[in-house]
Amino acid sequence: xxxxxxxxxxxxxxxxxxxxxxxxxxxxxxxxxxxxxxxxxxxxxx
Amino acid sequence: xxxxxxxxxxxxxxxxxxxxxxxxxxxxxxxxxxxxxxxxxxxxxxxxxxxxxxxxxxxxxxxxxxxxxxxxxxxxxxxxxxxxxxxxxxxxxxxxxxxxxxxxxxxxxxxxxxxxxxxxxxxxxxxxxxxxxxxxxxxxxxxxxxxxxxxxxxxxxxxxxxxxxxxxxxxxxxxxxxxxxxxxxxxxxxxxxxxxxxxxxxxxxxxxxxxxxxxxxxxxxxxxxxxxxxxxxxxxxxxxxxxxxxxxxxxxxxxxxxxxxxxxxxxxxxxxxxxxxxxxxxxxxxxxxxxxxxxxxxxxxxxxxxxxxxxxxxxxxxxxxxxxxxxxxxxxxxxxxx
Lengths: 46, 338
Hints:
The complex is a heterodimer. Chain A is an all-alpha fold.
């Protein structure tokens, strides 16, 4: 498997938002959407 | 690398000196990036070990900074998937090193106290794994795991790779809304809600101390983690392993996966580039005896194919109840890759 160019950023994205889901402050759908938004922002800045 | 350096300086190049510096992967990245962006190569190593997850990012971002090695080293001797990971622009920019074949390590005594046998730990699902964790914690008072669920991306990665998925699709676009992430997120929530994991960063020295101190009952990790567990000499015979728990809702999911793994790179501008390549070629791509040694002494399962048929792979490890841990994890890796 080729891990691609931005695995570290993807990991950062999930780590940034996952606790909110675990604490019940967002749904799973919202968590995934927030992680993707975070990822796209970070990649856009790189 | 220290052992490889010993072989190199005694058998190949007596005038060479090999100095090894150990640091975290994050620190390695920082040092390389600082050197590459500033143009100051002083203080950079000749050879560097980098996590495979960082390979494509570094090769693309710092194109030309790493030596292309396929002209000097026979890459057909390595597992294809590892060569793919370190290939860039039709070149191969690293010597593949260790396998990240993954499994479930568990404490036999704690599990027995909760009513579970070794047979019960084979071929379980992730939801069954959580139920076992609840029982173990209730029966023993021990933590079941050690990691912070909110930072549990290594669990997501284990889950995704067990089903042939990753954070990205074939075009490199984010594939975050995939069924492995969805199922594993719910598992992480269960682990969090039932307080099954001691909340310590999995990658920290503190977490290693928690495991070797006998404070947790299970760890899902790669074969390289076996060296950490084995360092707790007083726990010989108390640990066993099984294949990973399996996803239930994901098509093509298996109980086999991968976590981590790394490869050796030579810096293009290294003043010792020729010797660095020679060291990698003669040891990491040519010394089967060396691989047998680091397998037993360090738990390092190489992806150098000729070394995978040595006696050490069949070693029945007394620490893990005389089970052939290296051949088992190596076999799981073959199944996983197929």
